[in-house]
From TrEMBL:
Necessary cofactors: Mg(2+)
CDD domains named among the record's database cross-references: PGM1 (cd03085)
Organism: Populus euphratica (Euphrates poplar)
Keywords noted in UniProt: Carbohydrate metabolism, Glucose metabolism, Isomerase, Magnesium, Metal-binding, Phosphoprotein
Chain's gene name: LOC105125194
Protein name in UniProt: phosphoglucomutase (alpha-D-glucose-1,6-bisphosphate-dependent)
Origin superkingdom: Eukaryota
Biological processes, Gene Ontology terms: glucose metabolic process
Enzyme class: isomerase
Function statement: Catalyzes the reversible isomerization of alpha-D-glucose 1-phosphate to alpha-D-glucose 6-phosphate. The mechanism proceeds via the intermediate compound alpha-D-glucose 1,6-bisphosphate. This enzyme participates in both the breakdown and synthesis of glucose.
Catalytic activity as recorded in UniProt: alpha-D-glucose 1,6-bisphosphate + L-seryl-[protein] = O-phospho-L-seryl-[protein] + alpha-D-glucose 6-phosphate; O-phospho-L-seryl-[protein] + alpha-D-glucose 1-phosphate = alpha-D-glucose 1,6-bisphosphate + L-seryl-[protein]; alpha-D-glucose 1-phosphate = alpha-D-glucose 6-phosphate
Family to which the UniProt record says this protein belongs: Belongs to the phosphohexose mutase family.
EC numbers for this chain: 5.4.2.2
One of the record's GO cellular component terms: cytosol
Database matches in InterPro entries: A-D-PHexomutase_a/b/a-I, A-D-PHexomutase_a/b/a-I/II/III, A-D-PHexomutase_a/b/a-II, A-D-PHexomutase_a/b/a-III, A-D-PHexomutase_C_sf, A-D-PHexomutase_CS, Alpha-D-phosphohexomutase_SF, PGM
Length: 582
């Protein structure tokens, strides 16, 4: 057994290490500065309760992006230096964000140990590589992201840090499953490398009826395609979809994890998942090849998902509503009923209508999965989702991209349980259109203006807040832009009081609510590593079944014109068009 010594290394604060709702994200070159990562990790250890550090078990893994291997070695040595008992690492340093949550909640070590937290190494859907993004976030013993009370302490610690603790361990081989043991002044320290997928697969098999999904995927009527965008979902795709569920290996796209995501942008939307979009018949050029019946994509750390039918896009807002509407009959885990449902504020109100019709508890929360986690820990919420391609349930405390795909496959399997041997296949498009007929349609789009000058973005938002003081002035501007748009009846900045812990979250997005149920929402997003991202959300509700089949962009064009004019988007940003339209 290798002996190690602990040393205290003198350091100085950086001052720019404030973690957002998704942790700390910066360019790789920033993280590579001497002591930059070490300062953040030590500040986190110092912010945690002592029992979560000394003698504790820590998970350290991520989406495999560039700099992850170096970071795992640095954090492992610091864990030993800070008196932790063991570190668990997914093989090759790979664990999806939902799998980390599952490992914290479900995994038991050979000696009976349980993890008390995790460092997840990811910048989510942001690009990877030497000149791109890296990120780190801490998840707690419930498997969910650290609450504001902890992240605020971390940030305060980063501003005053003077030293960090580390051990003189050799680098650990993270490519081979097994335990490496070391000995220090406080006793033994173990690094266990374990299979990245087995704990997560076991959990999925306890939630879904894999046999019914296997029957669907083996039917000649049903074709399937899954794109991991060279993210960590590739470490799970073959094991689940091919080995467990019998899909053809040729149905997997970009399922080899790469540290630069193959040079692509691992964001599962119509803009960046180009290969899948083309294969599903939604590309700009028409292909003579018949598209698959079902397609799905994941982001870099596999917590987001995009669902597609043949030549048909399912909005994330519709997706969570349809999962909730069908969960009890199609997914065994929910057979006893749903405790409640929740969505983030910018997400369309499609889920609200389902909740009202099914008499379910409903919650509208700020953007950030920790708000859902509080509801779930209190037994108030079973299914939840965000318009930003995040969907999940109370099986873990993170959004879960592969879970969402399995949920859709379960619904398709249930709807087609008597059709696979004969009769017409119920398609993704059929399910969505039938849902609109029953519940109405929420026409919805999101415009993202990425890497906008931060000062200009703040000015635009301030101007929108100031405008809210006079609805008469707002409606004068609106009618001047588009006379046939409904009247604005309410405008505010969304504020949320958590029903579980009573905490209040202010300034969570600027809302303009119209008489006919339409909404405009403006938010500054914190998921980029530089500049600012302005997100504009536009929604219109249509109950008339004869009017639910329009093209979304055509239906929303009047409201889009109002949103751009009201916000003076081009004047403030210099942009004549958004970076991404979803």
């Amino acid at each position: 057994m290798v002996l190690f010594n602990v040393s205290r290394v003198v350091t100085t604060p950086f001052g720019d290490q404030k973690p957002g709702t998704s942790g700390l994200r910066k360019k790789v070159k920033v993280f590579k500065q001497p002591n930059y990562l070490q300062n953040f990790v030590q500040s986190t250890f110092n912010a945690l309760p002592p029992q979560n550090v000394r003698g504790a078990t820590l998970v350290v893994s991520g989406d495999g992006r560039y700099f992850s291997e170096d970071a795992i070695q640095i954090i492992t040595k610091m864990a030993a230096g800070n008196g932790l008992r063991r570190v668990w690492v997914g093989q090759n340093g790979l664990l999806s964000t939902p799998a980390v949550s599952a490992v914290i909640r479900e995994r038991v070590g050979v000696d009976g140990s349980k993890a008390t937290g995790a460092f997840i190494l990811t910048a989510s859907h942001n690009p990877g590589g030497p000149n791109e993004d890296f990120g780190i976030k801490y998840n707690m013993e419930n498997g969910g992201p650290a609450p504001e009370g902890i992240t605020d302490k971390i940030y305060e610690n980063t501003k005053t840090i003077k030293e960090y603790l580390t051990a003189d361990l050799p680098d650990v081989d993270i490519t081979t499953i097994g335990v490496t043991s070391f000995s220090g002044s406080e006793g033994q320290f173990d690094v266990e490398v374990f299979d990245s997928a087995s704990d997560y697969i076991k959990l999925m098999k306890s939630i879904f009826d894999f046999e019914s999904i296997r029957k669907l995927l083996s039917s000649p009527k049903f074709t399937f395609c899954y794109d991991a965008l060279h993210g960590v979902a590739g470490a799970y795709a073959k094991r689940i979809f091919v080995e467990e569920l019998g899909a053809q290996e040729s149905s997997l796209l970009n399922c080899v994890p790469k540290e630069d995501f193959g040079g692509g942008h691992p964001d599962p939307n119509l803009t960046y998942a180009k290969e899948l979009v083309a294969r599903m018949g939604l590309g700009k050029s028409n292909s003579e090849v018949e598209p698959p019946e079902f397609g799905a994509a994941a982001d870099g750390d596999a917590d987001r998902n995009m669902i597609l039918g043949k030549r048909f896009f399912v909005t994330p807002s519709d997706s969570v509503a349809i999962i909730a509407a069908n969960a009890v009959e199609a997914i065994p885990y929910f057979s006893a009923g749903l405790k409640g449902v929740a969505r983030s504020m910018p997400t369309s109100a499609a889920l609200d209508v389902v909740a009202k019709n099914l008499n379910l508890k409903f919650f509208e929360v700020p953007t950030g999965w920790k708000f859902f986690g509080n509801l779930m820990d209190a037994g108030l919420c079973s299914v939840c989702g965000e318009e930003s391609f995040g969907t999940g349930s109370d099986h873990i405390r993170e959004k879960d991209g592969i879970w969402a795909v399995l949920a859709w496959l379960s619904i398709l399997a249930y709807k087609n349980r008597e059709n696979l041997d004969g009769g017409k296949l119920v398609t993704v498009e059929d399910i969505v259109r039938n849902h609109w007929a029953a519940y109405g349609r929420h026409y919805y789009t999101r415009y993202d203006y990425e890497n906008v000058d931060a000062g200009a973005a703040k000015e635009l938002m301030a101007c929108l807040v100031k405008l809210q003081s006079s609805l008469a002035e707002v409606n004068e501007i609106v009618s001047g832009i588009q006379s046939d748009v409904s009247k604005v009846v309410h405008a505010d900045e969304f504020e949320y009081k958590d029903p579980v812990d009573g905490s209040i979250s202010k300034h969570q997005g600027i809302r303009y609510l119209f008489e006919d149920g339409s909404r405009l929402v403006f938010r500054l997003s914190g998921t980029g590593s530089e500049g600012a991202t302005i997100r504009l959300y536009i929604e219109q509700y249509e109950k008339d079944p004869s009017k639910t089949g329009r093209d979304s962009q055509d239906a929303l064009a009047p409201l889009v014109a109002v949103a751009l004019g009201l916000s003076k988007m081009q004047e403030f940003t210099g942009r004549s068009a958004p970076t991404v339209i979803t």
